Amino acid sequence: MTTDHPALAPTSRPDGWWRSAVVYQIYPRSFQDTDGDGIGDIPGITSRLDYLAELGVDVLWLSPVYRSPQVDNGYDISDYQDVDPLFGTLADLDELIAATHARGMKLVMDLVVNHTSDQHAWFTESRDPASAKRDWYYWRPAREGHEPGTPGAEPDDSRAAFAPSAWTYDPASGEYYLGIFSPGQPDLNWENEDVRHAVHRMMRWWVDRGVDGFRMDVINLISKPAALTSGGPIPAGAGGFGAIANGPRLDEFLAEMNREVGLDAEHLITVGEMPGATVEVARRVTDPARRELNMVFTFEHVNLDQASHSKWDLADLPLPVLKANLAHWQEGLADAGWNSLYLDNHDQPRAVSRFGDDSPEHRVSSAKTLATVLHLHKGTPYVYQGEEFGMTNAPLTRIEHYQDVESLNYHTLATAGGTPEEEVLASLAAKSRDHARTPVQWDATDNAGFTTGTPWFAVNPDHTEINAEAARRDPDSVFAHFQRLIRLRHDSETVREGRFALLLPDHEQIWAFTRTLEDERLLVVANCSSRPAELPLQELGELDDAELVLGTHADRDPGRLAAWESRVLRVRTL
Ligand code: GLC
């Protein structure tokens, strides 16, 4: 198959429109319900488009709305070319696409093709050892000398992300299949070219339907290590996804996908989620000359507040460490490739609770300051639903409060392994994905305007204070600040393209950096702490005649920053 858009200029050239875009992520299940079943739906998204246009974002990314048994809230797809009745119909989606385009925004689908659901027709067929689709997934016999299906007979000792083993026994064929997330998410075998062609066809179908690109789920896991693809076990190793990510054919598969689907067409945007990808991998994959992806999501900065490869193993995160990591990615992709910028998404606890201070005194300033820092970096910023008005972590204190497959599995395994319940609950309260998945708080009414029914997940009780309606009315709100940041990116070439330089790398409170383009220099100074901070003027230079471009506080002391105060200043280049 070749692209239908040969006349369009490729976006991999360094001036792709997405370099000035801000993307907004929607987790449909928790966004807006319209039919009263307590679960968000596509008509609900359409009903909120004016709000998103008012915020000023350019692109909407929808977490999966395809047919799915919902083992992992839609990241387990049983039909790539249909919408799950929970969310509506294909006609609803067509309407959403048209209504999004009518407001000058674009719509990106989540592409989950490292694995399917175990209910997908491809997998159902693959269960039969004689079927032509047997090789579409990874099937293996029991470990030598073991009775298939008995404890310890799995082909190797690898754990799944959300289950005790990466291998699930299938009694009918007497073999095991690979599911590195959960048994409900069997991994596709990308070595098989029929698999790749089927995925390309499906993607083309969506592009022809009008979608503007793809956010690609765990896309650096599609090429598996040679040991595994040649029939052996998963190599034991790094822990996390280290042992299985960034396989030898990753670049080949991505370039082929780009070519076959026509992903370089000017109007499209691609972003690959890549756990375990280093800046070197990202530079390769996003180098325009290689025509693979426009940008990737790194995990490095969201893995810094853990003491081992397990996210549940909590550790403090000193500011210098976080700053250094973002700076490393800025520098690594300064001359080739492109960064994506995020603190929040559907897999992370709320940024204001995690990196900021969600107490009543500091929530608004810290949400604004975190946004200032992120949006002033070079790259494409991603806003996650509710982040734009400072939604916080939910008060989840008992295991009954959780629903996420990852959280529940961790609780089961850790408590069975002897970790005290209290410690497990503390880890969950800090890191569970459920914090991101509470319903969007539209207003102060009982169910926060999310549903007229019973919400599938409890609405955060702080919605009486923290909600979109209140934020929209207040010119000093987090929402208003996000609007300004988005406008600044649209208006300022320096914000989009300026060279990044980190200042004060060791400062424990202040995050400071410059962005420079030709003779314009912006200086960002942000106090990322709940105490005032003296501005080290000897190191920053004379700021007397600096012009304030954007700030979080009306009263400004020339020599110090208030708690969680940030300023963007236009300074003289020397
Ligand atoms: C990605 C998704 C996450 C999902 C996993 C498996 O990390 O963001 O929500 O559970 O992939 O599809």
Describe the structure.
With 574 residues, the protein is an alpha/beta fold. It folds into 4 domains: 6-116 and 192-226 and 240-392 and 436-481, Alpha-Beta Barrel (TIM Barrel), CATH 3.20.20; 117-187, Oligo-1,6-glucosidase, domain 2, CATH 3.90.400; 397-431, no CATH class; 496-571, Sandwich (Immunoglobulin-like). The chain is 27% helix and 15% strand. It has 17 helices and 20 strands. The strands form 5 sheets. It has an 8-stranded parallel sheet with strand order 11-10-9-5-2-1-13-12, with helices on one face. Strand 10 (269-273), helix 8 and strand 11 (295-297) form a beta-alpha-beta unit. The longest helix has 17 residues, at 193-209. The chain is globular, with a radius of gyration of 24 Å. Bound molecules: alpha-D-glucopyranose. Residues 72, 75, 112, 181, 217-218, 273, 346-347 line the site of alpha-D-glucopyranose (GLC). This is Alpha-glucosidase. InterPro entries: GH, GH13_cat_dom, Glyco_hydro_b, Malt_amylase-like_C, O16G_dom_2.
Radius of gyration: 24 Å
Class inferred from helices and paired strands: alpha/beta
Annotated CATH topology of the largest domain: TIM Barrel
What does the main sheet amount to?
8 strands, parallel
Number of domains: 4
Q: Shape from CA axes?
A: globular
Number of strands: 20
Distance between the termini: 54 Å
Instruction: Report the CATH C-level class of the largest domain.
Output: Alpha Beta
Protein name: Alpha-glucosidase
InterPro entries: GH (IPR017853), GH13_cat_dom (IPR006047), Glyco_hydro_b (IPR013780), Malt_amylase-like_C (IPR032091), O16G_dom_2 (IPR045857)
Organism: Brachybacterium huguangmaarense
Family: Belongs to the glycosyl hydrolase 13 family.
